[in-house]
Structures are given as C-alpha cells and as structure tokens.
Amino acid sequence: MARSAGLEDALASLLDERPSRRGRRRLLASEQALSLLDLRAAATTSVDEKQLAKHLSDDGDPWLIVATSRLSAGLVRAVRRAPPSLLIVAGDASAAERERLDALSSEGVPTLGPNAALHVGEGEGLRCAGNPDELAGLLRSTPPCKIALAPTPAWLLSWLDAPALSDAPPIGYVTRDGLNADWPRWVRDREDDHALVPLGVEQVELTPFEPALERVAAAHALERLTGPVFPAPRVLGLILDPPPSTHAPSNEDLSMWHQARRALPLTGGVAGMSQPEHDVALAVPTAAFLAQRARLRRRVALDSLAAPQDPNDPLLDADCDLDRCVEVLAACGEALSEHEGKVVLRRAGIQCTRQAVAASASGAVQFADKIGYPVVLKPVSPDLRRKKDAGLVLLDLVNAAAVRRGHANILATVRALPTRPRVDGVMVAEQVPAGLDLRCGMTRSAAGVPIFFGHAQTQEMYSEPVLAAGPLSDRDALLLANSVITSLRLPQLRRDSDPSVRALAKFFARLDALVAHSGRRITHVEVAPLRLLDAERGFIALDARIEQEPHVDGL
Asked: How confident is the model at residue 272 (pLDDT cuts 50, 70, 90)?
C-alpha cells in the first residue's frame, strides 16, 4: 500500500503531535477559509483571499497545508510551483474551479474539497463523510474523535495508516471514487474494527477484466462482517459503540421496533431480531433496529472464526495435485468443457459429481449402471452454456430405459437448435441429494487480480453476489463463506441443518490455491450450481466452466 510522508506530516501538524519537518511551515490559510473550517492547528498564518497566491509564491519554502475558499488560476500556478502536502478548498467551487482542482489531483497534489469540512477534536479516531451536513450528523451521533473531514478523499488510507489514527476505529462513509484495491489489504490488517460504509457501489458483471470489479470488491471488504449498512449517522454510531441501556424499553419504543420488523420482514425475521438487545439504549428505535442487525452479523462472523478447528479437517486438501491441474489446463483450449473443468477442480480437491461421457445410448446405460441410479444426462459441448434453460438437462432417470430415451431426446433437441452447436457426447452424472444451490467462482479484474464471488443460484432466492479480492487466507475464506450464506434469504432452519460455512470456505480456499498455483493462466471459473449439503457431506460441484488465457510459447 502506497504511503505518503507528506500527508502524514499534514495530519501531524493538524493534530499538533510533533513538529513539522525542517523548512516547512504548517498551515497557510485565507481568512475566509478559516471562517469555514473548525481548525485549531498551531503555526497558522492567515491572509486575505486575494493575497493567498502572492504569499504562497513569494515564500521560499512549501507549506504543509494550504486552505482556501476560492481556487483561482493564480493560486493553481502557485501551488504547482510549491506543492503543499494538502490543499483544502473550503468553499463552493464553480465549474472552472472544479476542473482546476481535478487537474491538481491528477498531478498528485492531495486535495480536500470543494465544500470541505475539517474538524479537529480531543477524542480518538477519525470520522469521514460525503459533505459537511453528513459530517455534522456523525459528530453528533458518535463519540468524540481526533479529526473529522468531508468529503471523504481518495487518499484517506494514507491517514488511516498513520500512527496518530491507527489505534482507534474510523467511522463514516467511503464514496465510490475513494474505493480502490488497497482497501481489502487494509481491512485484513485492521481486523475489521471499523464502521466505514461504502456508498454508490454499483452492480457489476462477473466477467473477466470488468473495470469495476476491484472497486466493488473493496466495498464488500468493508462490509464483510456487517453486510450492507444503512448510511445514517446514528446507525453507524450504534454499530461499534452502542450506549448502554439504563432502563427497560418503553412500550412506545417496543411498538416502533415491531413496526420496523413489519416494514423490513426479511431483516426482522432473522434469529435475534424479534426483540431489542436488553443492554442497548433505544434512543432512536429504528436506528437501533438497523444497527442490531449489523452487530448480529458481526457477532456470527467472529464466532465462526473463533470456533475451534479440527486439525484433521483443514480447509485445503492435502491430497490435491495442483501440478496435474496445470497439465490438464495446458492440454485444453481457452474454454474448457464441463468434463475438462471438473477434472481440473477434482484434482484441486473440489468434490464434483461422478460422471462419464458417453458416445452412444448403450454407453450411457453402461455408465449409469456403474454410477448408480438415479442419474442426470446433459450434452457435452463448448457451444452450450445454459443447458438447463434450453431443456438439455434431464433429471431423475431411474433405469436403463429412461437413460436411452433421454439420450435420444437430448440429441434431437440439440439438432433442432438454430445455432447448430457441436456436441462431443452426452454426460452421465450422479444425481446429488437436495441442498442449497449457489453460484460461486473466480474472475479476473482489469488489473489481473483474482476476484472470488458467491451468491444464490435460483431467482426465487436471489442475492447480490459477494466479492472478495484474492489471495485468500483461511480467515478470508471463512469470512467470504459467512458473507455469502448470511446474505441469503433463508428461512429459519434448524441449527443442525443450516448451510455449513466451513464447507463453503473449503471450496473458496481450494479454488484460491488452484488459481495461485496456475499463475495468471485462469481468467474465469464458474461453478453453478455448487450444492451445499450438510456439514458432514460438505459441498459438491454439479456444473463447472473454466476459461483460461490463450496458450503461448513457453506455457
């Protein structure tokens, strides 16, 4: 993660914790900007707005911080000659001023604003928001903090890593433009002690080299314990540091709570949401309701990490053969058939359905007899991706006669398709017991980073895909699996029949090992469905698609 010594100096000067570097003064500000900012920094020099550019140009040494309410062309030239560690634009900005500010930012000058708000206090940590009004709400709703700023800048991580802020949880909002590939690494280092809510996160196609993949994965990293959080200041304040209750909730508070459960039945139906937690104050019942859901998810995730792990049941399969996986990939084309993909996954320790490819109806019957009934039939073709939608997946074939009829029906259906897809045979596969069907896998970002994903397979139980940037540690795999399962709209099941977080974590850990061992060769893996069974049986891949880079000499 890139670090900026200049920005850390600017933070230190604002907090007045250590002297600035030799030859650098602290804060040069226009009088108009100081009237808009809540600053008490030492060694502040204030001048009239019209004299700011001249003062900056005439001074021999650069300043750590320059604050202005207007960004004139002359001031821009002066900033370019002596770039400060931080440029603050406290006032509104015209279209021309915004263009100048964007240009300075693109040239590497850290900027805050326009309409910047900056508050220096006596507490711990940092508060950040999208605009001054949001920031004021955070300051009213959360404990006192060392420093608060709005709008949230793209360089925020440089300050969060600084010693002055590293020991206290930050709270606030990270806008879309401020999300980047460094956030997942920061979250891993911080052990998730924060309440930073990503804003403006778009839905993204899970296809290789999609430009927004890393940004969305960064947002999901911030949410990996709590899930999506409603962006209200009171909610954020109640997630990390809820005030203790001094008395039982009133009937009016309980009425508001139950009305929230009715308005949000999926949230209200979750175990633990029927009543407010007895030790948390209900100053604003609706905010307490939303915050309690986030705290419950955080608690469940942390409990899954704290659960004792059986050393005889590791996430990675000791018997996997990743070298053989690479050999199979090298012998295949850019898009592997389902059968080829399952061979690769099985070698990586990912359990797949037992299956064989038959060239004739009699061959299909022979394989079905060996696998055991009931079986599933589907065509093997690199040209067919949505076989089930096309009526090409036949289930519950319970005897030889049904297999012969199914084989003939599949070939007839394929021949009738206008695209005339190539068929390399008919796959005979075991039929797996019912379970929870997910769509899981990995796809490459535009920068080549592996992005792992998982969500519900069926439209009746659709959920937003949960993303996580690789490589995945065991902790990352467990948290990703927990996020996928807790995001599903599941009915309240018996505890012994709930989907196994550890079973899904095994899938992600083994897929991560395969992706890492094969270098940048694999561009996309999609297992749909991946069926979660009980904790004893784990998971099984029913269908799989793998794509890889075109072969070149030397691979």
From this structure: confident
Q: Are 470 and 451 a contacting pair, CB within 8 Å?
A: yes
Give whole-number Cα distances, 486 to 153, 260, 442, 501, 516, in Å. Answer: 31, 20, 20, 9, 27
CA distance 170 to 173: 10
Q: Could you tell me if residue 12 is inside a domain?
A: yes
Residue 406: CATH number of its domain: 3.30.1490.20
The helix or strand, by DSSP H or E, that contains position 89, with its residue range, turns out to be strand 86-89
Q: Tell me the β-bridge partners of 377.
A: 394, 428
Instruction: Let me know if residue 221 belongs to a domain.
Output: no
| In a domain? residue 100 | yes
Q: What is the CATH number of the domain that holds 554?
A: 3.30.470.20
CA 128 – CA 117 distance, rounded (Å): 10
Q: Are 127 and 107 in contact (CB under 8 A)?
A: no
Long-range contacts (CB closer than 8 Å, 24 or more residues apart) made by 460-463:
461/488, 461/489, 461/490, 463/487, 463/488, 463/489
Phi, psi (rounded to 5 degrees) for 246: -105, -5
Q: pLDDT tens digits, residue range 198-248?
A: 998 888 999 999 999 999 999 999 999 999 999 999 899 888 878 777 778
Using a 10 angstrom Cβ sphere, with 0-12 exposed, 13-18 middle and 19 or more buried, the burial of residue 239 is buried
What span, in angstroms and rounded, lies between the C-alpha atoms of 490 and 137?
35
Same domain, 291 and 388: no
Q: How far apart are alpha carbons 526 and 515 in whole angstroms?
A: 13
Q: What angle do CA 162, 165, 169 make, to 5 degrees?
A: 130
Secondary structure in 3-state letters for 18-85: CCCCCCCEEEEEEHHHHHHCECCCCCEEEECHHHHHHHHHHCCCCEEEEEECCCCHHHHHHHHHCCCC
Count CB-CB contacts under 10 A for residue 339: 17
Distances (CA, A) of 429 to 121, 360, 372, 388, 396: 65, 15, 9, 14, 11
**Token pair 């049941």: residue:** 313
The verdict on whether omega for the bond into residue 265 sits within 30 degrees of 0, i.e. cis, is no
pTM: 0.85
Residue 468 pairs in a beta bridge with: 452
